[in-house]
Amino acid sequence: MSPIQLFDSASCTYTYILFDKDSLEAVIIDPVDEQLQRDLQVLRDHRLKLVWALETHAHADHVTSAGLLAEHAGARTAAPEACHIGTAAVQLSDGQTLAFGAQTLRCLHTPGHTAGSMSYFWQTESGGHVFTGDTLLIHGCGRTDFQSGSPEALYHSLTQVLFRLPANTTVWPGHDYQGNTHSTIGQEMQTNARVAGKSLAQFVETMNNLNLPKPKRIDEAVPANLTSGLRHDAGGDAPMQVRPAQGYAGDVSPQLAWAWVQAGEAVLVDVRTDAERAWVGFVPGAQALAWKQWPGMAMNPEFDAGIQKLGEGGKKLVLLCRSGVRSVAAAQRATDLGVAAYNILEGFEGDPDSNAQRGKLGGWRHHGLPWQQN
């Protein structure tokens, strides 16, 4: 059994989907936000239930879609604890295992590219697989000159952790810029240009003299990835203006949405689950029409008919979910059905803070707009 390997050409990033053939439970490793719809379609095509969205580290060249996949597919997020991704539901440590169906991933702390970098080992009936992120690349390795990187730590991770795996273990890297897809531990031990046959001193000298340019997206990507890629904020200088969006009418702040509702120009539609509205709170007068429902966050079969009926009056529809993620998908679907629908940025609760708590970084409640709790 081999993973499904997917490629983002803009960042040369490999994303991997692993699954258990009996239960169809799946794991995704290093997903890219701009490939969200592609990855969701792959899951649908294979009828997979995504249970884990994993990071090998906090990336500097792309933004993760882990937080989005938690909203759209019901996955739990997990990341290496030393990466300090506070929004990840599970903080991973060396030797920890993650189960999906009858399959198991083993976490290997492999610092060096970053202090928190982690690889994942998967033993199948046909052999072992290791997903190495930016730690071990084909004929190369990740840089060590930012994010608390260390050539000494990377040398140890390569020679004393990854190269201790069986030689026939398949290596699945986080990137490749030459069209390579995979290698083996044995091949990299013999032919890797950075480390094969090199002493620690030689390796450190090489890594300290690469003189690589700063990653183009590092200032954007790293902060976003420290919150699992969730960036749906309504800040800035123009909270009362519509932001353009692709596939639906636009993004609006909670304040603008409420102003429209008060003026009789729009209908507020709460697309959260019945359970969320009951437990967390609701907006008086909002129309309840779940995009997905418990158990299992299954698609609501009544959504299409319901959203079309709400749009019959000709008013704009402003869609509210927990943090402004599901409401994007719902707005896109409403638009496909011919209804003018807007996404409310930040949602009801806002994005999670560094302690994974919501309600402090924006959201309907945070802005002091009307709401009640049963």
Account of the 3D structure:
This protein is α/β, with parallel strands linked by helices and 374 residues long. The protein has 2 domains: 4-225, Metallo-beta-lactamase, Chain A, CATH 3.60.15.10; 232-374, Oxidized Rhodanese, domain 1, CATH 3.40.250. The protein contains 10 helices and 21 strands. The strands form 5 sheets. A 6-stranded mixed sheet has the order 1-2-3-4-5-6, with helices on one face. It has a 6-stranded mixed sheet with strand order 7-8-9-10-13-14. The chain has a 5-stranded parallel sheet with strand order 15-21-20-16-17. The N and C termini lie far apart (49 Å).
Blueprint (SSEs and pairs):
Layout: E1 4-8, E2 13-19, E3 25-29, H1 36-45, E4 49-54, H2 66-73, E5 76-80, E6 90-92, E7 97-100, E8 103-109, E9 118-124, E10 127-133, E11 136-137, E12 140-141, H3 151-161, E13 170-173, E14 183-184, H4 185-191, H5 200-208, H6 218-225, E15 250-252, H7 254-262, E16 266-270, H8 274-280, E17 287-288, E18 292-293, E19 298-299, H9 303-310, E20 316-320, H10 326-336, E21 341-344
Parallel strand pairs: 3-4, 4-5, 5-6, 10-13, 15-21, 16-17, 16-20, 20-21
Antiparallel strand pairs: 1-2, 2-3, 7-8, 8-9, 9-10, 11-12, 13-14, 18-19
